[in-house]
Structures are given as C-alpha cells and as structure tokens.
Design brief:
The complex is a heterodimer. By secondary structure, chain A is mainly α. Chain A has a domain at about 20-50. Helices cover about 85% and strands about 0% of the residues of chain A. Chain B is mainly beta. In chain B, a hairpin with a 4-residue loop joins strand 6 and strand 7. Classes of the chains: A mainly alpha, B mainly beta. Chains A and B meet through helix 1 and helix 2 of A and helix 2, strand 7 and strand 8 of B.
C-alpha cells in the first residue's frame, strides 16, 4: 500500500516538475521571439504598412 | 497563467497567430507514463506573449480562415531540438536530480496574402536541479531520457 502510494506521489511529482521546467523553456523562447520581433524583425514586419 | 515582460512599444498591426493541429497536439512524454501537452501550452502562451508586441492578437488554425482585418500572420512551429530529460546521479546519502527542457520555435511572419516577410528561430532552455534523500520513501529511483513525440 505504502509503495503504491509512494509510486503515485512520485508520478505526480514527476509530471509537475516536467510541466514546470518545460513551461519555463517555452516562456524563455517566446520572450526571445518578442525581443527579435521588435529589433531584427521590426522593419520587415512593418514593410508595406 | 504565464508572465511576459511588457515592451516599450507595440507594432501597429492587427496580427493573428496561426497554429495548425500538428503543433497544437505536440506533447513531451514523461517517465512513469505521463506527458505534457506543450502544444496546448504554446497556444495559450504565444497568444499572451504576442499581445505584448501587437495591439491585438487573434488565433486561427485553418489557412483559409484569416479574417479580412488581419494585417500580419504569425506562424509558429516546434523545432526538432525541442526535448526534455531527467538524470539522477546516485549518492550514498543524497541523489542529485537534474531536469532539463529545451523548446525550439520556428516563427514566420506573413502578410495577409501569405507572402513571407520575416522568419526567425529561437531556443529557450530551463533547468531544475535539486537533491533528494537516498533513504526517503518517496519512491524515486529512476533516471533516463524523456522524448518529444510530435504527432
């Protein structure tokens, strides 16, 4: 019983930690994208406006 | 849910985020049979982040459904570098746990006639490291590599 509960808790912890670290990497990528849109991409994106 | 930095300016364009179903269904497999739907997170997070650089941002997933008022289309796809891993270095009293995730995004910006104006690739990295007791009863005793599973 204790082993099963421990395994379940470990599974939840595993899932939560993976979600958190993957979300941080996603947010980091999107922050970089915003910076590039406003710098290197700005003229090309505004072209024809 | 997500926090993105405010920017000093926004590009004065009505923009729309284009994500096809393949990207929306992208997931990262996790040990112990669970997985994280990073494609769903991308949809929410990118809508929020792009709202910091465009005054309005809408979302669509079919190329023919761009509304006439849209001036720029931002298409985002996951790159092959997208991955996640976990490693565990066993010790006598403590185990060292290290999680790493990498998200690679390909971004293309089009005008409303789907003419390519600009493209860029970005990679975000994140790491989580901590120690766990070698004697604790939390059931942890695994290591290995998680893999991404594009549909």
């Amino acid at each position: 019983m204790g082993g099963a509960m421990g395994g379940y808790a470990a599974g939840l912890q595993n899932e939560r930690e993976m979600r958190d670290v993957a979300t941080k990497s996603l947010v980091s990528a999107l922050e970089q994208l915003n910076d590039k849109i406003l710098t290197s991409g700005k003229d090309a994106i505004l072209k024809g406006k | 849910m997500f926090y993105f930095q405010d920017k000093p300016e926004k590009l004065p364009l009505k923009a729309a985020l284009y994500l096809d179903d393949k990207e929306r269904n992208y997931d990262i497999s996790v040990l112990l049979g669970s997985k994280f739907m990073i494609g769903e997170a991308l949809e929410l997070a990118a809508t929020e982040s792009l709202g910091k650089v465009f005054p309005t941002i809408s979302l669509f997933n079919e190329k023919g459904k761009v509304t006439p008022d849209i001036e720029r289309i931002i298409a985002i796809k996951f790159g092959p570098e997208t991955s996640a891993s976990i490693s565990l270095a066993p010790g006598l009293l403590k185990h060292e746990v290290k999680r790493e995730a990498k998200t690679e995004l390909f971004c293309e910006v089009y005008d409303k006639e789907w003419n390519l104006l600009w493209k860029e690739t970005v990679i975000g990295n994140a790491t989580l490291e901590y120690q766990k007791s070698a004697w604790g009863g939390d059931g942890w005793s695994y290591g290995g590599i998680c893999r991404r599973t594009p549909k």
